[in-house]
Amino acid sequence: MVTFVDRVTLHLRAGKGGNGCVSVRREKFKPLAGPDGGNGGHGGDVVLVADPQVTTLLSYHHSPHRAAGNGGFGMGDNRSGAAGEPIELPVPVGTVVKDAAGEVLVDLIEPGMRFVAAPGGQGGLGNAALANPKRKAPGFALLGTPGWEGDVYLELKTVADVALVGFPSAGKSSLIAAVSAARPKIADYPFTTLHPNLGVVQAGDVRFTVADVPGLIEGASDGKGLGLEFLRHVERCTALVHVLDCATLDPGRDPLSDLDVILAELAAYPVPEGQTPLLDRPQLVALNKVDVPEAKDLADLVRPDLEARGFRVFEISTVSREGLRQLTFALGDVVATHRAELADAPAAPRVVIRPKGAEREFTVRVEGGSYGTYYRILGDKPVRWVQQTDFQNEEAVGFLADRLDKLGVDDALFRAGATPGAAVVIGEGDGIVFDWEPSLSSAAEVMVAPRGTDPRFAPSNRRTSSQRREQYHERMDAKAEARAELEAERLAQQGRTDEDDR
């Protein structure tokens, strides 16, 4: 039965933004009193919160799909839609959040830290918010944008000051149970500990945490035993304690050979960039089980060799509690020294926040294939504006054209070599495909047209010069024919009159 999980994949879906409303206020004696469509509500976020009361990712192992609420639609009478309900997911302190590519998004190392893993969609503006002196009664509203949807990976790295490492059955669990209130599983067979255990130790005025890491064996870096699966939990530790079994009955094993194997496995573990390698951190040696006479003799024998190699050595017994006080106070000194160094360390470099206008808001990429060249526009604003556009409404499409023109998209397409009628795609993948016509970027706000329509999309009825010339000649020819007919009728009438006179 699974009781400890330190790696999970979360399938998150943030809430969608609500659509804006198209409405015109109607009152007595004021049938068209102006637009009053409300805005749509924003979609709910999915937020990860570092909670000290949570110690495992087990709940997300069983229920990895989490979704936030959608925003409500805007309504008439300037009523905005309700915001979507966000959800907060508590995770253990020390959880690392990664994206699908394996890049670290955030490291939740402090209690109470919050990270918006899936931002909700933006609510669309109603026609009341889109009205201005030139567009007094918009016949369209903006649609809500979809929320973020995808996978994030959670990886738990235990936050502890001291890590106990050693072979299976070396007495690590017994040691953490003897020096703290932790009650890990203890048995007389290897690999009793299947997940890290945490304990809090008080040594004088110093309080620190100790992590019991599952046992390592030779070849762990190649996948033997539990491998290096749980060594990520010692990455944040200040000091390492090598717990060596002086009473082992396995042939070919002794404290010195066990230590060499553990050091080799620790050296094979790559720590993240910027962190101190495991073997460069303070290391202490605890010769365990000295309550056994043969183990005591062996500890006395190997202690000089270990001290000659630069280790501080403590002979301990978790049964008789011999040497535990000296070990805990030595660890307290190491932890206190490290904390003092962190307090005296220079402050982190200041983060420079650049204004949004300092970076290019979109890019134009020329692509092509067997079907010809097309131009792809990439950027947060153009993609969001396309998502907000109702393409069944001509006025909304004209508004999109004006926004893209003000952003400088037309100029960028000209510089990229685009010609009228070229295929333009906005967004990744299939995206939205347009036949680009620069003439659509004229000032729509000064045009007078019924609500919901844009005269730029209507067929042009203006005659060309050749058509006007042809029509002029047709009129002149018709007038000449009419004069000729009148003249012929006059001459015929005059001839009949002369005959009557004779």
From TrEMBL:
This is GTPase Obg. Its cofactor is Mg(2+). InterPro entries: G_OBG, GTP-bd, GTP-bd_Obg/CgtA, GTP-bd_prot_GTP1/OBG_C_sf, GTP1-OBG_CS, GTP1_OBG_dom, GTP1_OBG_dom_sf, OBG_GTPase. It comes from Microbacterium koreense. Residues 354-438 form the OCT domain. It is found in: Cytoplasm. GTP binds at residues 166-173, 191-195, 212-215, 288-291, 317-319. CDD domains: Obg. Monomer. Belongs to the TRAFAC class OBG-HflX-like GTPase superfamily. OBG GTPase family. Residues 451-502 are annotated as: Disordered. Its EC number is 3.6.5.-. Residues 160-336 form the OBG-type G domain. Residues 2-159 form the Obg domain. The keyword Magnesium applies. Residues 467-502 have a biased composition (Basic and acidic residues). Mg(2+) binds at S173, T193. The keyword Nucleotide-binding applies. An essential GTPase which binds GTP, GDP and possibly (p)ppGpp with moderate affinity, with high nucleotide exchange rates and a fairly low GTP hydrolysis rate. Plays a role in control of the cell cycle, stress response, ribosome biogenesis and in those bacteria that undergo differentiation, in morphogenesis control. It is an enzyme of class 3 (hydrolase). It comes from the Bacteria. Keywords: Cytoplasm, GTP-binding, Hydrolase, Magnesium, Metal-binding, Nucleotide-binding.
